[in-house]
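Teaching assistant here, posting this on the class forum so everyone can see the example we discussed in section. The complex has two components, and the goal was to see what a joint structure prediction looks like when all of them are supplied at once.
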Amino acid sequence: MSINASWYLALSVVLFSIGALGVLVRRNVLIMFMCVELMLNAANLAFVSFARTLHDIGGQVLVFFVLVVAAAEVVVGLGIVVAIFRRRASANADDLHLMKG
Amino acid sequence: MTTALLDLVVQGGKATLPDVGVFAVAAAIILAGAVGVVVARNPVHSALMLVMTLFGVAVLFVLQQANFLAAVQVIVYAGAIVVLFLFVIMFLGVDKEEDITKEPLRGQRALAAALVALGTVGLLLLGQVSKWTTGQPHVAGSDTGAPNVNLLGKSLYTTYLFPFEATSALLIIAVVGAVVLARRPPATSSNSETAVAVPAVPPAGDHDAEVDA
């Protein structure tokens, strides 16, 4: 029950870094989205650790809101991916240079 | 040796060996899943690895007494979001192996790895020198003996009522936006297979994009 919160935070940092690396390295839009979800989960883990450490339920409420916002973000993001795919037939982020000057 | 390890990991001397074991196994599952998401060549495998990571995070929520959030994590993330991902992957037909050995830009991966390593080390050092995590860890919320769900619900509908209502508005907007994005423009319905064709009457505001396409 009382594992030191800094271990959770270290795990959260590593998880966030892996997600950030994925967003930077991968070019498939769907996998980039999944890596964003990894980063959100790292933030959730840190929120819950702080909620436990600081005796404040607010951290857990915030995780609740992050879940809702993540769901909305995925719905709109995947809608955009489908709309782009209809026009370009590719899920590769490098192909999307339609608005390049 | 075991007690020395326990002293290193726990705070307050209340954690038991099973706690440490559960944390270690869940952390290993989370990290393996996260690495799998990044390195998998097939997007479907990435989505399944994402489920693995989400379950590991749910286990750690339970370990920190956030039982309700663990349930929501499994239901919303693993049950809804990942299913939506898989639906879109298979709907678009991009569930093929892709070549991830070649770099799109020269030096991109080395630069990304260097930046991420710098950020990781910086954050870990920040965690070491700060005093954020001192104090006696306990159940979140004031220690009234009430279950976690009661505290969470009361807080959500009193202190955080306005953000709660704002998220409901956000969900409505997201649903409307998704419907608008996903529906086909009615002008192109005659030859809906070739979406690049210029519609007979292009909708106002969409004109430039159609010409460019």
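For the discussion questions: Residues 1 and 23 of chain A are 33 Å apart (CA to CA). Chain A touches chain B through 75 residues (CB under 8 Å). Think about how each of these relates to the inputs above.
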